[in-house]
Amino acid sequence: MLETAIVAARLAGQRAMEELRYVHKTIKNGKELVTQADPICQKIIIDRIRETYPEHGFIAEEGEEGKLLHIPPRSGTPIWWIVDPIDGTNNFANGILCFSVSIAAVLDGKPILGVIFEPSTDAMYTAALDMDARLNGSRITVSQDTIDRFTSFGVDSHPLASIEIGKQKIMEQTRYRCLGSTALHMAYVARGAMIGMIAPAARLWDIAAGIILIERAGGMVTNAQGQSLMPVDLENDAAKQFQTLATNQKVHRKMLEIFSKK
């Protein structure tokens, strides 16, 4: 299954890079950018996975009429594939190469494998149950750094009152970064490039692969109150928003203190 996800992610990422030559962007649901490449890359991923696993279910960002794609498993083991064909669409739509492909497989509400692919650097992040987190085949782990002015922390560009005070504090204490892709923030936490990241209202397809990647790399993922995000009811809660705090574990308690205060 992991190999299937890797192949699907690479095919979609390569197509996304080709589509950059003539990007056509529109606004979805009055608030989100979408390009012609998003559904094209999503179809590439789903078609590739279905070749091997036709009975599995899918949750993906690009459904009909601006809704999510929600296809339940048909029989057998109830595995769902969670797909974000281009995480960082705003970047992609404006020719900024900081975007990723995110694919996870979920069983019983928890990710069992995850792949995040950064096409512009050919960086393939992978993880699965009972396996190490890896970058292009080499093992990666979260950092052991603490909060200081030389460490990086990923912040979300969407303002939300629930974390704005905490976000301001962390921006004062670190070399904060906003890459424009939640999945890439999580991948960079897993590889030790960032000590943590915060996303106040992420979607499942933004974080599913990143959760298992960070956990297999030795990090932690919770909400700002320290509660686990998984398991999730994919039949009823696939479209919900997830307040997501991911760290290298060493700084998690301090981050909870920063972001849980009003």
Task: List its traits.
five-stranded mixed beta sheet; alpha+beta; 262 residues; eight-stranded mixed beta sheet; 2 domains; Fructose-1,6-Bisphosphatase, Chain A, domain 1; 7 helices; globular; D-Maltodextrin-Binding Protein, domain 2
Give me the CATH superfamily of the largest domain.
Fructose-1,6-Bisphosphatase, subunit A, domain 1
Span between termini: 43 Å
Structural class: alpha+beta
In helices, the fraction of residues equals 25-40%
Number of strands: 15
Strand order of the largest sheet: 4-3-5-6-7-8-9-10
CATH architecture of the largest domain: 2-Layer Sandwich
CATH T-level fold name of the largest domain: Fructose-1,6-Bisphosphatase, Chain A, domain 1
- Overall mean pLDDT stands at 93
Which spans have pLDDT < 50 for at least 5 consecutive residues? none
Shape: globular
Q: What kind of oligomer do you see? A: single chain
Q: Main beta sheet: strand number and arrangement?
A: 8 strands, mixed
Describe the protein in words.
The chain is 32% helix and 28% strand. The protein has helices at 2-19, 37-52, 89-93, 161-173, 182-190, 204-216, 252-260; strands at residues 25-28, 32-35, 57-60, 69-71, 79-87, 100-107, 110-118, 123-128, 134-135, 138-139, 152-154, 175-177, 196-202, 220-222, 242-247. The protein has an 8-stranded mixed β-sheet, with helices on both faces. The chain has a 5-stranded mixed β-sheet with strand order 12-11-13-15-14, with helices on both faces. The protein is globular, with a radius of gyration of 17 Å.
